[in-house]
Design goal:
Length: 206
């Protein structure tokens, strides 16, 4: 029963993401459901990780008999990663990938926006957030996810979501994200950091 509900949820998310991202994945997307203990044993993921996408979507579901709102959010988040991987041939920086997945799963920065606006100048620049977040301590990981969401909210609110789609397309042919930024937005990584910081101050700062 749970497996059927998960499949139905993913089918609906697939149709939505296909339209929203203008991406049509050609490779099969594998989804594996685990008891919690098996999930940790298999993935070696940190305690803060609620799921993992390493080419396959791996989700712990112990104790669940139906798709809860939280599980639905996780499924959509992880499916977005699969779309991004295929759309960019695996070239997407982690911060962009996570930020887009958070947008798609319905996450919002508003609750933490004021705090992030205040500490943003002291956070690691986006150029240092291109690699996996998996090995980060819980507090650093939370901050990295918030900063990732902030970047995608900035792109969506400033340039429109179609620009996000165009950046995805550009990554498919160029593995240097700094070059993609300059081509698409006429910005360097450094100036992008400053613009996101200014956006946060304007929207959430006091």
């Amino acid at each position: 029963m749970l497996g059927r509900q998960v499949l139905d949820e993913l089918e609906a998310d697939f149709q939505y993401l296909q339209s929203d991202l203008n991406v049509s994945p050609r490779e099969t997307i594998v989804v594996l459901l685990y008891p919690n203990e098996a999930f940790r044993d298999v993935t070696r993921s940190p305690s803060w990780a609620g799921a993992l996408n390493d080419g396959k979507i791996r989700v712990p579901v112990s104790g669940l008999t139906s798709v809860t709102p939280q599980l639905a959010r996780v499924l959509k988040h992880e499916l977005t990663h699969s779309f991004v991987r295929q759309a960019t041939s695996g070239r997407c920086p982690t911060w962009f990938n996570e930020g887009l997945a958070e947008l798609e799963d319905g996450s919002q920065l508003a609750r933490f926006g004021k705090q992030l606006a205040r500490i943003f100048p002291q956070t690691p620049p986006y150029a240092l957030l291109e690699g996996s977040f998996v090995r980060l301590p819980a507090g650093d990981a939370t901050l990295a996810y918030l900063k990732s969401l902030a970047a995608l909210e900035y792109l969506r609110d400033t340039f429109g979501f179609n620009e996000v789609r165009q950046i995805l397309g550009a990554m498919a042919v160029d593995s240097d994200f700094d070059a993609v930024l300059q081509l698409q937005l006429h910005m360097t990584y450094a100036s992008f950091d400053k613009e996101v910081g200014a956006y946060l101050q304007k929207r959430y700062g006091q």
